[in-house]
């Protein structure tokens, strides 16, 4: 390995993952509810979590750019076209996942602005969530690992991000099982975590003939 910031980026992203997981925990939410009140948590927690997640990721991205780096590979045609297609699929999966759950609500904006009252959580099992339990992670991994240009620093980021997604998915599912009980257990039994079953994917494409999923 030539001079690069591989170790520093790997460590920084690992620390980001730990921080992000702690902020997402029920323990932190209960602490904030005790200090600031349940109504405050219901209204502002999601937005605060999103802002802190974005702001604390900036130093990691800065390290990737500023630290020494070197190229591992650069794809040319036709592999370049295939990688861009895979990344496009990843972006589409993320978009569909956010669309199914509500992108603005995912960020916490309507709640903070008082445009969305606190409602009981709903288990989303339709759209891409009928094919995989964590489409946001699946789409993000496609976008990350099919980069047409790979460097040591980007590889470190991708490895740490992949570990974070896997661990984060496990922690998230523990919370979902506690919240939804047997409904989530049944959903998890019939729906893969990250990679859709080929048969389910074919059936979904047949049901969505006419490009209705693009609407």
From TrEMBL:
It is found in: Endomembrane system. Its EC number is 2.1.1.100, 2.1.1.334. GO terms for molecular function: protein C-terminal S-isoprenylcysteine carboxyl O-methyltransferase activity. Keywords: Membrane, Methyltransferase, Transferase, Transmembrane, Transmembrane helix. GO terms for biological process: methylation. The keyword Transmembrane helix applies. InterPro entries: Nurim-like (IPR033580), Phopholipid_MeTrfase (IPR007318). The chain crosses the membrane at residues 48-67, 79-98, 142-167. It is a multi-pass membrane protein. The keyword rRNA-binding does not apply. Belongs to the nurim family. This is Isoprenylcysteine carboxylmethyltransferase family protein. It comes from Thermanaerothrix solaris.
């Amino acid at each position: 390995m030539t001079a690069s910031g591989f170790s520093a980026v790997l460590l920084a992203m690992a620390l980001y993952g730990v921080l992000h997981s702690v902020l997402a925990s029920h323990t932190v939410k209960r602490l904030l509810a005790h200090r600031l009140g349940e109504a405050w948590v219901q209204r502002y927690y999601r937005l605060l979590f999103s802002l802190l997640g974005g702001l604390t990721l900036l130093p990691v991205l800065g390290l990737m750019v500023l630290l020494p780096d070197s190229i591992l590979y650069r794809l040319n045609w036709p592999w370049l076209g295939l990688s861009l297609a895979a990344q496009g699929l990843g972006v589409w999966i993320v978009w569909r996942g956010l669309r199914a759950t509500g992108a603005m609500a995912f960020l916490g904006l309507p709640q903070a602005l008082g445009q969305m009252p606190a409602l009981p959580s709903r288990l989303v099992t339709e759209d891409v969530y009928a094919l995989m339990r964590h489409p946001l992670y699946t789409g993000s991994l496609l976008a990350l690992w099919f980069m047409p240009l790979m460097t040591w620093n980007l590889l470190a980021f991708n490895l740490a991000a992949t570990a974070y997604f896997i661990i984060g998915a496990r922690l998230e599912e523990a919370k979902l099982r506690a919240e939804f009980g047997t409904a989530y257990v049944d959903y998890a039994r019939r729906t893969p975590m990250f990679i859709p079953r080929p048969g389910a994917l074919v059936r979904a494409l047949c049901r969505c003939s006419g490009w209705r999923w693009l609407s």
